[in-house]
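Late entry, evening session. Most of the bench is empty. Finally got around to the prediction I had been postponing all week. Sequence below, unchanged from the version circulated by S.P.
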Amino acid sequence: MSSAKLWQLVRLILVIAGTAAVIWGLGIIFTYTYPFVLAFLLSLLTVPLVNWFERKANLPRALGTLASLFIVIGIVSGMIVIVISQLIRYATIAADRLPNQIETLTSFAQRVFNERIAPFVNDAYDSLEQLNPSQTTSIEGGITELGVQLGAAIGVLSRGIAGTLQGLLSALPLVLLLFIVIVLAWFFITKDWPSYMRQIERLNERKGFKEFEAVMFNLRSALFGYARAQVTLISITFVIVLVGMFILRVDNPLSFALLAAFFDLLPYLGVGTLLIPWAAYAAITGDWFVAIGVLVLYLIVIVQRNLAEPKIVGSHIGLNPLAALVSIFVGLKLFGVLGFILGPVFAVLLKALYNAQVFHYIWRFIIGPAPIPKER
């Protein structure tokens, strides 16, 4: 191997090792600074509103920031209150109807037992009586062991549920502390945003700042674009569910559509968190028209979401639909629920780095300077 090829290999190893070290370091830093990273992202989204208050309403920066935070938190809290109140309302209605539904379900179970299960049990008992004592003992032992294993499994499940509830209760103080830290950091970053921008402008003449500025501009555009894309997708879900509720002649269709739009924010399950239990309840109570209609509605929402999401998200954040679909899938695999957001953001970040020619600089570093031709 020539010395030039050897140095190219060394520089390639250095780039790979440096990239891995940076990713590892950022991962460790993120575990300690994620509240402030989230506050920074929230500031990116709320700075335009604060600037509007400062320019149009002539409010002081601090007061405009406080008003913006109250507006955003108020809107989110209002949505949560509406959703919880609607859930409580429908739970109350279900509780009022529960005695009659339990009676209907009990009658249905009794009829199924008498017509289907009891004859089978009688036949099995008659067959068991015809076996010799050793076979009977073996079968009874197997049934006993199955019961023991079933009881152990129920005990493990119960302990797991109790542990989860205990963990949630013990995490409440930490969640409250994180909320306070995020809100305070959000306020201070947004209030002092112009000061940070002036400090950054002093770096204009330094090498590499233009590339960094381009990356940050693309990242901010991606965040706004992703938020607009999710609002668009949720609005489509709201309209589809609202139309479905009118077709199914359900009471309070607007409330159900709002609940569906809220649950559509949840990755993996989405509107299925609301519609699947509803369909099961309707089937148990014998309302097959609503049960089948809700399942068809759920399928329509899922299909349109999966078909429209790559196109809408990609168009809003500057990626083609295939790249957006790959970023969402890879993000979910790598980061779980958070990957639903982090995947497209990282894809946009890579694209911004490419547009800023960062990868070109890295490649030129690996290749090294062009050889100087020898004089003849």
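Two things to note before I forget:
The mean pLDDT is 76.
The first helix runs from residue 3 to 56.
Will write this up properly tomorrow.
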